[in-house]
Amino acid sequence: MTDLTRTDFRFFHRLRVRWAEVDLQKIVFNAHYLMYVDTAIADYWRALALPYDITMHALAGDLFVKKATVEYHGSARLDDQLDVGIKCARIGTSSMLYPCAIFRGEEHLISCDLVYVFADPATQKSRPVPASFRDILMAYEAGESMVRMEVGSWQQLGVEASKLRTEVFVEEQRIPAEMEWDAADQTALHALARNRMGLAVATGRLLQHAPGVARIGRMAVSQVLRGSNLGREVLQALMRAAKERGDREVLLHAQRTARGFYERLGFVPRGEPFEEAGIVHIEMVHGL
Question: Considering 141, 163, 181, which residue would you say is the last residue of a domain?
Fold first, then answer.
């Protein structure tokens, strides 16, 4: 293993050491470091905007750990905040090397090398890493964006946007289908984020609420990719479109559970909470 520093990584996953993870020496039990890395790997796929199950099914394969090696440089303790750095360093015919490192601040505590093999999920026999998957991994490590944002009409984007909204609002949140669809879709401007495999992963729409006032709604992000900034990118794309057409303010009805997300992006609440489609909302506004 080579000595790694924080500058070696584009991706980091942060976690806090829990009571159940320390041993009688009051330090993290050694096996938990592999669990930390495995938890971070799941977040790495989110950073690539790749829903893992859907992606592997589309690629007709799966990833299996062939080798995992850990080197201990220092010990983490209860309540430490740790950053797990992960990168894809090498892709062979069927194998991939992921060097990982766990840091407490700038202190390098753990090194870990993971070797994955791309294989047939039924037989676990190796097969070549698909070129499309290889290109995505290398593009991410080169600092490129993992999504392509499209802004357009319902006629252009409606098929994929409606599928994603059905998954999020109708199936997940159990909003009646008749309340989800309205005539406003036909005149709204829509934003759609696609990952590098062409899958729609986030969407939203922009309406003209009043002269100079835009309204953003129907914000939906694929469930397994939430927390990876896709919602922010859709929101910012719609806000740019509103500003370009001359709007001075944008408002939206935020679900109570999403209020913190919008506040972090500069939206402020206005008025009292209210119920919409059986879910508590709050109106929030942002100047342009």
Answer: 141
Residue 98, domain CATH:
3.10.129.10
The reply to whether 159 and 242 lie within a common domain is yes
Q: pTM of the prediction?
A: 0.89
Query: Given its phi and psi angles, is residue 7 left (phi above 0), alpha (psi -120 to 50 degrees) or beta?
Result: alpha
Query: Same structural domain for residues 46 and 98?
Result: yes
φ and ψ of 19, to 5 deg? -55, -40
Measured CA to CA, the distance from residue 100 to residue 40 in angstroms comes to: 9
**Token pair of 23, please?**
């041993």
Model confidence pLDDT, tens digit, residues 220-279: 999 999 988 999 999 999 999 999 999 999 999 999 999 999 999 999 999 999 998 888
